[in-house]
Amino acid sequence: MEKADWPAQGLLTRAQDVRTANEERLMRFPNVVGTGIGLKTVGGVLTSTVCITVFVEKKVPVGELKRKYVIPKELRGVPVDVLEVGHLVSQPALPPVRIG
Length: 100
What we know:
By secondary structure, the protein is an alpha+beta fold. It is built from one helix and four strands; from the N terminus they run αββββ. It has a single domain (9-84), classed as GMP Synthetase, Chain A, domain 3 (2-Layer Sandwich). 8% of the residues are buried. The longest helix is centred in the N-terminal third of the chain and has 19 residues, at 9-27.
């Protein structure tokens, strides 16, 4: 992926507010494992467009989903990107390491 410049803080704040307002609903969708804020990727190229990222175990063609489970292309004007991450497994926390 190519590097993109981070946008103005106001765009990030707006995206975070919209993500927070919609996170509970998105997490109820089958296959969704998380949400975040990032830059949209189009055709494998990182853009400078701030987006809400929805992490899914596996991308599924829209035609195979019930209409109510289709992740929208945008939420309240903020673009949405869907990223396939596979099956996530939580790891136990490691104790802090002190050096010196």
